[in-house]
Amino acid sequence: MLEKLLDYLHGFFSPKTSEERSDMLNLVLPFVANMLRDVVLDKAQNLAVETLQPHLDKLPPDVKKALDDAVDGDNSHDHKSLADLIKQS
Questions:
Q1: The pLDDT of residue 15 is above 60
Q2: How far is the C-alpha of 7 from the C-alpha of 2, rounded, in Å?
Q3: Residue 71: CA atoms inside 13 Å, Cβ hemisphere, count?
Q4: Which of 12, 14, 22, 66 makes the best surface tag, with the fewest CB within 10 Å?
Q5: What is the pTM for the complete model shown?
Q6: Under a CB-based contact definition with an 8 Å cutoff, are residues 41 and 34 in contact?
Q7: Domain extents for the chain?
Q8: Mean pLDDT computed over 8-24
Q9: 29-73: per-residue pLDDT in tens?
Q10: What is the number of other CB atoms lying within 10 angstroms of the CB of residue 38?
């Protein structure tokens, strides 16, 4: 599941017009970040932060930066990066 999600994110960043990409990122990335946090926090799941972090480290730098920027721009919390957000548990 995680590998499919990361593959999707990688494909999501395929070349598009700058405006299309920006609009899509503003909508999708905060949702993705919060979904990953919820999966880590869900006690019924066995996905721990230690399991997720190595996969996040493998993301292309532009994808990782976009996720971190989306987390930083989400006013529903004070976290500044995806790593910070998922480590709150």
A1: no
A2: 9
A3: 22
A4: 14
A5: 0.58
A6: no
A7: 2-86
A8: 65
A9: 787 888 788 777 777 666 677 777 887 888 888 888 888 998 899
A10: 11
Tokens 């920027």, located at residue: 69
Which tokens hold the place of 11? 């494909």
**Which residues neighbour 3 within 8 Å (Cβ) at sequence distance 6 or greater?**
55
Give per-residue burial for 46-74: e unless 16+ CB within 10 Å, then b: ebebeebeeebeebeeebbebbbbbbbeb
Using an 8 Å Cβ cutoff, are 49 and 36 in contact?
no
- Class of residue 3 by CB neighbours under 10 A (exposed 0-12, middle 13-18, buried 19+): exposed
Residue 87: is it exposed, middle or buried by C-beta count within 10 angstroms (0-12/13-18/19+)? middle
